[in-house]
Amino acid sequence: MSKRLVFFMPLVAIAAMMALFAFALLTGVNPQEMDSALEGREMPAFRLTDVNDSQRTLTEESLDGEPYLMNFWATWCPSCKFEHPYLNSLASEGVRIIGVNYKDDRELAVTWLRDYANPYDIDVFDPNGDLGFELGVTGAPETFFVDSSGIIRHRFQGPIDSALWENKLKAVYDAME
Amino acid sequence: MRWSNRLIAAGLLFISLFAVAEQETLIFDNDTLRERYLDLTQQLRCPKCENQNIAGSNSPIAEDMRNKTYELLHLGYSDDQVVSYMIDRYTEFVIYQPRLNWGTVWLWLGPVLALLLGGLMVAWLARRSGTEPPDELSDDDRSRLQTLLDKDS
What is the pLDDT of residue B5? Predict the structure, then answer.
C-alpha cells in the first residue's frame, strides 16, 4: 500500500510546481521588478548644483528637515510630462518634493520648469546621473520617500497619478516622520 | 562583379571598421585590466533590460554601469569589490550567480537532497521487493498445476 504512495510522489512534486507557476502567472509576478537596495538606508552623500543657479552647491544636508519625496525627472522623459501636473497638485497640497533633474540639459530643464510650473522645493541638477547611480536609479521618473532623519523609506518607479497616490503612496508618505 | 556591388561591399567594409573602432575606444592601463573589465561586464546583469548583461545592452543604465566598472577598476577595486558596489546600489538583481546565504543555500542543497531522497527511495523499494515472500500455493492450486503439467506431457 505505502509502496504505491511512493510512486505518486513525483506526481505530487509536479503538481506542487505547477501550482507555484500558476500562482506566479495569475497574480502577475513581474520578473522585471527589482527591489530597491536603498530602502532603510540613509540618503547618500552628494555634491551637485541647483538647476536654476550653477553657482549654488547642494548636498544631502541641504534637504534635511522634514520628510520629502525625491523625484527624478528629465525633459527627455515622456512619463515625466504625464506625471508633472499631478506633482504640481501634490505640492499645492503641501507635500514637500525635491526635484532631481536627471541626465539632462540645464537650459531645457529651466525652460520646462518655467513653462509647466515648478512643484519642487529644491531643484537638484544631476547631469551625469551620479546621484541617480548612488540611489540605484534605472530611469525616470523614479520617486524616493525620505523621512526627516534622511532615511529612505520607499522607492517608486514610474509616474505617480492620483489613483496610485490615494491607494498606496499617500499611506507611505503619511507614515513618515 | 559589377561596380555597384563593389561599391556596396566597400561601404559595408568601411562601416564595419567603425563598428570595431567603437568598442576599442576604452583605453586601459594594462591588458589584465581590460580582461577583468570584459569579464565583469559579461557577468553583471542590466537592471533595466531582462536578461541581458551590461556588455550586450545599449540601455543608458547599462552604459553607466560599464563606465562605473571601468572607473572602479582603475581606482584599484578588486572584482569582488566592483560587484559589491553594484549590489549595494542595484541589489542582487544585477548578478547572475547568486550569492550564498540562508535564502539561496537551497539552490545547492536542493539537488543534493533530492538525489539523496531518490536514492533512499530506490534502495527501499529494491529491498522491499527482494524480501517479499513468494506466494504460497494452496493445495487446490498444486493439484491444478499438476493436472496442467500432466496434460502437457
Answer: 72
- Residues A61, A8 share a domain: no
pTM attached to this predicted model: 0.76
For chain A, say whether B38 makes contact (Cβ under 8 Å). Answer: no
pLDDT tens digits, one per residue of A20-52? 999 988 887 777 777 888 888 999 999 999 999
**Sheet hosting strand A122-126, strand order edge to edge:** A53-59, A47-50, A122-126, A97-102, A68-73, A142-146, A152-157
Looking at the partner chain, which of B48, B87, B91 has a beta carbon nearest the beta carbon of A139?
B48
pLDDT of residue B22: 46
Residue A134: closest C-alpha in chain B: B89
Rounded CA separation A57/A46 (Å): 10
Domain range for A13 is 1-30
Same domain, A93 and A123: yes
Closest partner residue to B91 among A31, A35, A134, by Cβ? Answer: A35
Which residue of A17, A133, A144 is the best one to mutate when testing the B interface, meaning the one whose CB has the most B CBs within 10 A?
A133
Smallest CA–CA distance, residue B61 to chain A, in Å, is: 6
For domain B29-94, the CATH class is mainly alpha
As a whole number of angstroms, the distance between CA B102 and CA B94 comes to 19
Same domain, A6 and A62: no
Number of domains chain A is built from: 2
Q: Which parts of chain B register pLDDT below 50?
A: 20-22, 24
Residues forming a β-bridge with A50:
A53, A124
Looking at the structure, tell me whether residues A117 and A81 fall in a common domain. yes
If asked whether residues A26 and A103 sit together in one domain, one would say no
